[in-house]
Amino acid sequence: MKPRIFSGMQPTGELHIGNYLGALRGWVEIQHDYEPIFCIVDLHAITVRQDPKQLRENCERVAALYLAAGIDPDRCAVFVQSQIPAHVELAWIFTCTVPFGWLNRMTQFKSKMQQAGSSRDSIGTGLFVYPALMAADILLYQARFVPVGDDQSQHIELTRNIAHRFNNLYGKTFRVPSTKLPTVGARIMGLDDPTKKMSKSSTGPNHAIRLLDPPGRVKKLIGRAVTDSQPGVNWGAPGPGVANLLTVFQAFSGWSDRRMESHFAGMRYGTLKGQVTEMVNSKLAPIQQRYGELVADRPQLREVLRASAERVAPIAQRTLRRAKRRTGLYSV
User: Which of 8, 62, 133, 144 could potentially form a cystine with 3 if both were Cys, beta carbons 3.0 to 4.6 Å apart?
Assistant: First the structure.
């Protein structure tokens, strides 16, 4: 049996090239080496208020982008988190198991609270306890690895701690996932602020290139990308904006460092931006074409989600039954 992996993305905002180069493309590359389970985590999305109609639509759009990027539904399970209620049941068991202090130390929650300021009373409790749900997502399928970026390392470590705690309290029930990640994707920064990682939640109009952006918009966004005051590419010490553009080109092209240096050293920024634009558009075009075909056939797309959920639900149910039995929860 190949080792099982689990990962997922929220159906909020629109997937951008940072999501693709940092995670999604890596999933495609490793899907034949593992037993992959890839989820659209809509339960996580409702930790903040969502438009119900848009949330349902976004679930299918993200699923279509998974497939358009190269995820093979015959090899991988691709489903929506809320299709399998066991995620929530196990998350509640973990919520009752994990110490308050563990959750209170999570940096993402603290960051959200600071951003909220005086309006923090409007923040739902789900934002505090959702790391327990994230742990349930992973441990429910006894995943060995979780291919996510380094910004999620604290959540993976918490998942490991929860598994150890439950196993110590109630007997060995969960596989403790490894912190070793099967893939490391490129870290893409915001075009408007290259000191911050590209994010779906950013409201800046020039921040991110979305996977479905047309060529003209890609050209405009890259044209407006932050560079620096030097006249051309200083390969040895590029500014963060220039370094980010070079990272985008290299991640899409697969060029070696030597080839990148030979080609770009001393290049003026207008030429650099033009070549990055051409590279990005050439790689997004087939994804966009396949995406259009997938969303044009919604019944087939929904069948993929249904069949995948049906395939992995028995794994989830076996784990949940064991956890319920260990904790003494009543079942017949």
Answer: 144
